[in-house]
Write a structure and sequence with these properties.
Radius of gyration: 16 Å
CATH topology: Rossmann fold
Strand content: 15-25%
Number of strands: 8
């Protein structure tokens, strides 16, 4: 299964989430890549869109490889492989502080005129453009669960099968369109996987606020 772009993935994902149409779901997109998808989901399902801010705790050897993740409250998830991949306790503490500063800056940048939308008592659908290790999604689900949604759903277009099993305990439902055995990277399942800019995220959220 190949997706043309994130908007195409969002439309297909909306079809799999059709049961929630008209129930005013809260779509929580993980920036930056999932925001264009979240916009499509919110429009088709008739819900609200916001971001759930989490950050990868990255390896000292690669900014793309996640050793874990952290949410805005400071709660962190550390993969059981972190220590063997350079994640010493001292390094992880520095990395947590660095990513927390980025989260504070992102919140001020993305939603400067309002607080985050409260998911309490609502159907909350946390969406990303794909999973690899699942670390970021786990932090996003944990952050959302702490705010007591009526139902918590993880929705992604593509993921390795083993990652889906890892995240199931953190939500009520997992919706994934494609879980291939030969998974290497999320981008291999998109024709267009260009990076989403901060300006795009800000523009989408601003238009949602005043729509």
């Amino acid at each position: 299964m190949i997706f043309a772009n994130r908007e195409d993935a969002g439309r297909r994902l909306a079809g799999a989430l059709a049961a929630y149409k008209g129930q005013n779901p809260l779509i929580l997109a993980i920036p930056r890549g999932a925001v264009p998808m979240g916009k499509v989901l919110a429009e088709i399902l008739g819900g609200d869109l916001d971001v759930v801010l989490v950050r990868k705790l990255t390896s000292p050897y690669s900014s793309e490889f996640a050793l874990g993740s952290i949410d805005e409250s400071g709660w962190s998830y550390i993969g059981d492989y972190a220590a063997s991949a350079g994640g010493t306790p001292e390094y992880m503490e520095r990395e947590k502080q660095r990513q927390m500063q980025t989260l504070r800056e992102r919140r001020a940048q993305y939603t400067p005129l309002r607080p985050p939308i409260d998911p309490s008592g609502r159907i909350a659908i946390v969406v990303d453009d794909g999973l690899a290790t699942g670390s970021t999604m786990i932090a996003a689900l944990h952050a959302t669960r702490a705010k007591n949604p009526a139902r918590l759903i993880c929705a992604v277009p593509v993921s390795p099968p083993e990652t889906l099993e890892k995240i199931r305990p953190f939500c009520d439902e997992v919706v994934c369109l494609y879980a291939p055995d030969g998974f290497q990277a999320v981008g291999q399942f998109y024709q267009d996987f260009n990076q989403v800019s901060d300006d795009t995220v800000i523009d989408v959220l601003r238009k949602q606020q005043f729509s």
